[in-house]
Amino acid sequence: MADFDFLSGDVLRIVVLAGGDSAEREISLQSGATATEALKSRGHEVVQVDPASEDLATRDWSDCDVAFIALHGTYGEDGGVQRLLEELEVPYTGSDSSASRLAFSKSAAKERFLLSGVDTPAYVLIHETDDATSIHQKANSIGYPLVVKPDAQGSSLGVTIVRSPEDLPQALARCFHYDCFGLMEQAIEGTEWTMGIANGEPLPLIQIESEREFYDYDAKYVDDETRFLFEFDLESPTIGQIEQLALASFDSLGVSGIARADIRLDRFGKPWILEVNTIPGFTSHSLIPMAAEQQGIELGEFFERTVRAALQNSFLRRQN
C-alpha cells in the first residue's frame, strides 16, 4: 500500500467486493455497483470483483490500496472475507472479523446485548433437528405472536411473524431453508425504526412505514410504496431513547465503519434492538444512502470518507 495522506485528495486504487454465492448475491451486486460508480465519480481507480468467480486468496492484491466490502450474507458479513483480508494485510472497510462474526449470528449478538444491558426481545435458539414437542414448548415459553428467523441470514430472508401454533410449521420450514439454527423471538408490536453509523458518527434516524406485516425482503428492495420518514410524531425524549439504544448496540458489538441497527418501538414507547447489520445495503432502496443524503452528504463523498477511514485505521493498527 502506498503512503497516503488519508484525508487528502490522493487517488486511491479500490477493489469493491460484491456478489459472492450467498442468498443475498443479487442485492450485493446492486450494492457493489452503487459503490463502484460513486467512488469512480470521486476520481478513484475502482474495479468490482466477485468472489464467486475469482479466488481472493490467490488474487494479486498489489493493485489495491483498500477493499470496499459490499458482500451481504455469508462470507461477507460473517467475518470470512474480513479474516482473509486480515491475513493478506489488505485494508478493508467495515467491522473486523470478530465483530462481523458476532453481529451476523443473531443469537450471539443478542447474548452480547443482554450482557451489555441493551434491551432486545426475549428469544430461544432452535435447531432443525428439534422435535415438534420441544419446538412447541419453546414457542409457548416466548408466547404468541412470535417471530421465527434464521440465526445467520440477512435481508429478512426466512423471517415470519407467527400468530398461532397452526402457523408455526410453515414458518420453521422457511427458516430452516436458510440455516440449520433459528430463533423464536418475542414479536414487538409497534413501529419500525433504523439508525446507521458511519466511521463513529451517527446518521439520521429513520422511521419505516410499510403496508406489509413487517419490513420484509420485498419491502426493502421491491415495494416502492414503503415510506421512509425523517420527521416523527414523537416526543424528543423517546427519539433520544431510540438513538441511544442504537448507539449502545453498536458499542456492545464493537462494530466499525458503516453499520445499521434495526429497532422496534412498542406501543408503550419502549425501544427494542432487533439486530445490527455490519454491511447494510447500498441499493436505490437502501437506508444508508438515504440517511447520507438526508445529512447532506453526496454518496461518493460518503463512501470516500469510509475508505479513507479504513486506510487510516489500518495504518494505526500496524503502528501499534
Automatic annotation (TrEMBL):
It is an enzyme of class 6 (ligase). Its main location: cytoplasm. Binds 2 magnesium or manganese ions per subunit. Its cofactor is Mg(2+); Mn(2+). The active site is at 24, 155, 286. It catalyses: 2 D-alanine + ATP = D-alanyl-D-alanine + ADP + phosphate + H(+). It is found in: Cytoplasm. Mg(2+) 2 binds at residues 275, 277. Mg(2+) 1 binds at residues 262, 275. GO terms for cellular component: cytoplasm. GO terms for biological process: cell wall organization; peptidoglycan biosynthetic process; regulation of cell shape. Keywords: ATP-binding, Cell shape, Cell wall biogenesis/degradation, Cytoplasm, Ligase, Magnesium, Manganese, Metal-binding, Nucleotide-binding, Peptidoglycan synthesis. PROSITE patterns: ATP_GRASP, DALA_DALA_LIGASE_2. SUPFAM superfamilies: Glutathione synthetase ATP-binding domain-like, PreATP-grasp domain. Residues 110-308 form the ATP-grasp domain. GO terms for molecular function: ATP binding; D-alanine-D-alanine ligase activity; metal ion binding. Its EC number is 6.3.2.4. Pathway: Cell wall biogenesis; peptidoglycan biosynthesis. Belongs to the D-alanine--D-alanine ligase family. Cell wall formation. NCBIfam families: D_ala_D_alaTIGR, PRK01372.1. PANTHER family: D-ALANINE--D-ALANINE LIGASE (PTHR23132), D-ALANINE--D-ALANINE LIGASE B (PTHR23132:SF23). This is D-alanine--D-alanine ligase. It comes from Polystyrenella longa. The gene is ddl.
